[in-house]
Design brief:
The structure is a homodimer. The first copy, chain A, has 11 helices and 13 strands. By secondary structure, chain A is an alpha+beta fold. The first copy, chain A, folds into 2 domains: 124 residues, 60s Ribosomal Protein L30, Chain: A (2-Layer Sandwich), CATH 3.30.1330; 169 residues, Alpha-Beta Complex (Phosphoribosyl-aminoimidazole Synthetase, Chain A, domain 2).
């Protein structure tokens, strides 16, 4: 490499503009930048392109995932208590490990902090980080800390383990497999709408206290999500290994399309089957939002979306908190959402783009 | 946890101020935040407190380290070509893995980008990242990409492997062990001084071209460091396993004090033995800086600092590019720097504080 001092930045400025990056979107950008990566590492089972990477380490597999939370993009400190933020920053990574049917073991944390943060504030953030570690039996094993010129950046890497044959990828679904989701969808997005409204009220009159009565559940889903370790354990106890799985961070549509693409299948899901909590319905009505759209595109629910063979239907129906919402089809070009009125619509990923 | 919406940020603001954080420094802050972490994980061999974490995976060990580079804190895009920056962001992590006498295998990358970055610019950054991966036989296996409100943040996690008995910690040095360094010290710091000077000239008159003739080596040491895989391999070929080791990212003083603290020993090093490159001496003269101070406190050299038993002296002296600069002592309270005039000074860590 030649050292082109003082030129690079200005040269880069003349190049194609950021608009293209946001148009590519996060997945498009990653595809673009990594399309030429070819591995000849025999121990690397899965590189980029699933919830986590997977590589062989002795007779087990190690899984690695990383997530970045940026102030002003992923969270707003006006309504995100720092303890909750620390907790959430950890569990969104653990959720990716569980989505591989694996067990999270370790995390590392890198923080960049602007000068507005006090030691108290960082202690609060860490108390949430360590609580999440305790609740999910994970060890904090390293990190890096720096100042930033503005804002808070939290980068967490989670490391998990699993036996090779236990791991569930996005790619294993078969035609006629049942599509299942845990819990309910849209709550985190609707909780965010409520917090955004209260923020506006507060900013216009700082003596106002937030009105969240009756909506505690959806606010908690936004601020302090829990990954579904319980679902992974329940499925294991029922001897059910999903054929494909992903966690719902960007919205049901986006995640289901990942399963379809990676399994080279189509799907058909039914609006009437999508689980939505009563508080989500009430909040959607209040905000005049469509409940199903919130469930399809809202994101941040950290529920599990997975497929199981058709013959597991009876067994799955016995498990509380799992809903069968449709099935996979061999027609890989057809991804259908069947509305309550019977009309079939094409599923589109309108999930959140962190580059916009 | 209770949800104290809208209160947290303002409460935190009333707390202790950032001044305390910068006074604690990076290591003090980490100690403070993690002092109560206790692990009962039998596979975790080393958590926080060495160049990397180490845990058992089957019959080998996996090592993990993470580093964060922040625009305006760790790098300045006026003189850091993006390809070099991507390269450096990777190799500083690999350097930590080599410093454990281990082999880096995988990296993950999280990027936060402000809107000033074009697709071309990101491609440049990635070309450096991928070149480093190629040169050191490492696979990029995952990451996360986001926008930022301002600046560029690069968080990289590197994963390595080693046999348990091959790993070298900071804690294994014994009294009378020889203290060795690879390559030469202070060059990266002096390269930075030169780039900073040229930046000022450029900002006052943008038609000016940088004057770097004769200083290409120290500029390259700053912008495109190389981790010392070759030294690790050479030591292995000579059947020498260091008793303790660390990479020099924060300056010789700071790193040597880490070895002393972790091995519970003192040390005595000799100014006349510290290796400094001719260009570094010339640059130090030009800037009226003390060459030895640049070597002791400059940082970013990414050389290896290690100890070997006294009986390896002859063998070590045969290896080019390794200098014996002193020895460890049993007097753990005495860390001495013996100046060329024979005066003994106390070694102090004046390495760089990323929180200042």
């Amino acid at each position: 490499m030649q050292v082109n001092i003082l030129h690079t930045f200005f040269m880069a400025e003349k190049g194609k503009k950021i608009k293209e990056i946001s148009e590519l979107g996060e997945f498009g950008l990653i595809d673009h930048l990594t399309k030429n990566i070819k591995s000849d590492d025999k121990n690397l089972i899965k590189g980029i392109g699933d919830d986590t990477a997977v590589f062989k380490t002795g007779n087990t597999c190690t899984l690695v995932t990383t997530d970045l939370l940026v102030e002003g993009i992923h969270f707003n400190l006006i309504y995100s208590p720092l303890k909750h933020l620390g907790y959430k920053a950890v569990v969104v990574n653990l959720s990716d490990i569980y989505a591989m049917n694996a067990t999270p073991k370790y995390i590392t944390i890198s923080l960049a902090l602007s000068s507005k943060f006090s030691l108290n504030a960082i202690e609060e953030l860490y108390s949430g980080i360590l609580l999440a570690c305790k609740n999910y039996n994970v060890e904090l094993i390293g990190g890096d800390t720096s100042s930033s010129l503005s804002g808070l950046f939290i980068s967490i890497t989670a490391i998990g383990e699993a036996k090779k044959n236990d791991i569930v990828y996005r790619s294993g679904a078969k035609p006629n497999d049942l599509i299942c989701v845990s819990g309910n969808l849209g709550a985190a997005y609707l909780g965010l709408q409520l917090l955004e409204r209260e923020k506006e009220v507060f900013l216009s009159d700082t003596s106002m206290q937030p009105q969240l009565d009756g909506f505690e559940y959806i606010v908690e889903r936004q601020l302090k999500p829990e990954p579904r370790r319980d679902i992974i354990e329940t499925l294991r106890n029922h001897n059910i290994k999903p054929t494909s799985m992903i966690d719902i961070s960007d919205g049901l549509s986006s995640e289901l399309l990942h399963l379809c693409k990676n399994s080279d299948l189509g799907c058909r899901i039914f609006e009437e089957k999508i689980p939505v909590a009563p508080q989500s319905i009430a909040a959607a009505e209040m905000f005049r939002l469509d409940t199903s759209l919130a469930a399809l595109n809202g994101g941040e629910d950290y529920e599990l979306l997975f497929t199981v063979p058709l013959d597991k239907k009876e067994e799955i129906e016995k498990i509380p908190d799992i809903s069968i919402i449709g099935y996979m089809t061999s027609a890989s070009e057809e991804k259908f959402f069947v509305a309550k009125n019977g009309i079939e619509l094409e599923l589109k990923a309108q999930g959140w783009n962190p580059l916009k």
